[in-house]
TrEMBL record:
Its EC number is 1.2.1.70. Residues 408-458 are annotated as: Disordered. It holds the Pfam family GlutR_dimer. It catalyses: (S)-4-amino-5-oxopentanoate + tRNA(Glu) + NADP(+) = L-glutamyl-tRNA(Glu) + NADPH + H(+). CDD domains: NAD_bind_Glutamyl_tRNA_reduct. It comes from Halobellus ruber. The lineage of its organism: Archaea, Methanobacteriati, Methanobacteriota, Stenosarchaea group, Halobacteria. This is Glutamyl-tRNA reductase. Gene3D superfamilies: Glutamyl-tRNA reductase, N-terminal domain, NAD(P)-binding Rossmann-like Domain. The keyword Oxidoreductase applies. Transmembrane segments: none annotated. GO terms for biological process: protoporphyrinogen IX biosynthetic process from glutamate.
């Protein structure tokens, strides 16, 4: 039994570039899960891949096995410093923060929760989830849902990219519209995501480096395609709304580019500007810039900061509940193993005693029931104190005591080879497991179970 049952690793926007995130990600989340499970000593696996992160988690037989499997995440990177390794508790807390939107470029954004849920289903379908990860991931989803229903963490717009789309929504209908995003950096990526969420019918992403534009187009939930900056003039003719966010030192869009554009709303997020102010005098083109965004962002920024503090407190409380749940489960596993071992021995010894008594003159049903009841009572009283101790050990993080109990009360206890002492190979000496003269426990194959927590049967 290992206190650090989960290990994780992540490459995300907090340290890595788009190229590095792409290099760390596998072809699919399912493929990553299957690759992790193929490593020796890996019992469970989960992977989360979005535009802004590539993350992997495992439940391993040892810390070394976990690290070896997770090295897969950084295999395609030249700079390993962008990989963040996480132990058990850090992994669990980080998963909650991701699902709640606290680790997103836009704090509280909704898209990540849907992506998180889909990743859980993918891992489950690939056979990657067992009781440990299933418990942690379920808790993370629960926190993500609570954050969005009990706080205003996802209200309004706090990033420039999403604010641009909120501004556009005030002035034109985005549902079914054709949208063009010029630039595939962080602001362009956020704007593309917000436009997709607003229900645009077609999304075009233009960038000097086309693969970066393709990356953004592939990450959004919309009918999206990528193109080069050289083709922007043609896209402007078809676009109803345009968001520009490049780092060019010269204008990307001028008056000639929009001459045939018709009614088009252009939101210029670049500093220096991407759009020549003269373009606003061409036809029906309307241009908005950074100054116009202040009314959209000022109110919601303060709201989200306060909501983020609420979510942090929520995570603290849920995290403590999750750790307690793991502790109870590990204690119950040890207690169940202890009772299973006792019942095996009890059943054998009751049967031996009953056979001897019947051979000596027979037993009535009441007498047989009395023998079995006595055996049940003995086991219950003998194990009451160890049961209480194991639950206290779990509450106090005393895993050495629980590990020792698991070794002493192995489920195979008492199933040794015929003619031996009934002790399986490797069982510790000095533990009475034989007949009644040796002080062994008895079992009748009945329904003896550990006592309910907080109640003693003695």
């Amino acid at each position: 039994m290992d206190t650090e049952v989960i290990r994780g690793a992540r490459v995300s926007h907090e340290r890595a570039s788009v190229d590095q995130i792409e290099a760390a990600a596998g072809e699919s989340a399912r493929g990553v899960v299957e690759s992790l499970l193929a490593h020796d000593g890996i019992r469970e696996a989960f992977a989360l891949q979005t535009c802004n992160r590539a993350e992997a988690y495992v439940v391993a037989d040892s810390t070394e096995a976990g690290r070896a499997a997770l090295s897969l995440l950084g295999a395609g990177l030249d700079d390993g410093s962008v990989v963040v390794e996480m132990g058990h508790e850090e992994s669990l807390r980080h998963l909650m923060r991701v699902a709640a939107g606290l680790e997103s470029l836009v704090v509280g954004e909704d898209q990540i929760l849907g992506q998180f849920k889909r990743a859980v289903e993918v891992a489950r379908g690939a056979g990657g989830l067992g009781p440990t990860l299933e418990t942690g991931l379920t808790k993370a989803v629960h926190v993500g849902e609570r954050a969005r229903t009990e706080t205003v963490i996802n209200d309004g717009a706090t990033s420039i990219g999403t604010a641009a789309v909120r501004l556009a929504e005030r002035e034109t209908a985005l549902e079914g519209a054709t949208a063009l995003v010029v630039g595939a950096g962080e602001m362009g990526k956020l704007a593309a995501t917000a436009l997709a969420d607003a229900g645009v019918g077609e999304l075009i992403v233009a960038n000097r480096t086309v693969p970066h534009a393709e990356h953004v187009a592939n990450c959004v939930d919309a009918d999206a395609r990528a193109m080069s900056l050289d083709d922007v003039e043609d896209a402007l003719t078809a676009a109803d709304v345009v968001v520009t966010a490049t780092d060019n030192s010269e204008y990307v869009v001028d008056a000639d580019d929009v001459a045939a554009a018709g009614e088009t709303l252009v939101v210029d997020l670049a500093q220096p500007r991407d759009v020549d102010p003269a373009a606003g005098e061409a036809g029906a083109v309307e241009i908005r810039d950074m100054d116009d965004l202040e009314s959209v962002t000022a109110e919601t920024r303060a709201n989200r900061e306060a909501a983020a503090r609420e979510v942090e407190a929520m995570i603290d409380a849920e995290f403590d509940r999750l750790l307690d749940e793991y502790k109870r489960r590990q204690a119950d596993e040890a207690i169940g193993t202890m009772y299973e071992a006792a019942e095996r021995i009890k059943a054998r010894e009751v049967e031996t005693a009953v056979s001897q008594l019947e051979a000596a003159g027979g037993l009535t049903d009441d007498q047989r029931e009395a023998v079995e009841s006595m055996a049940d009572a003995l086991v219950g009283q003998l194990l009451a104190a160890p049961t209480k101790s194991l639950r206290e050990a779990a509450a106090e993080d005393d895993w050495e005591t629980i590990r020792t109990a698991m070794q002493l009360f192995d489920p195979g206890f008492g199933d040794g080879p015929p003619g031996g002492d009934g002790r399986p190979e490797g069982a510790p000496d000095g533990i009475p497991i034989g007949n009644s003269e040796e002080g062994g426990l008895r079992r009748d194959g009945g329904s003896l179970r550990p006592p309910v927590e907080g109640r003693s049967d003695d």
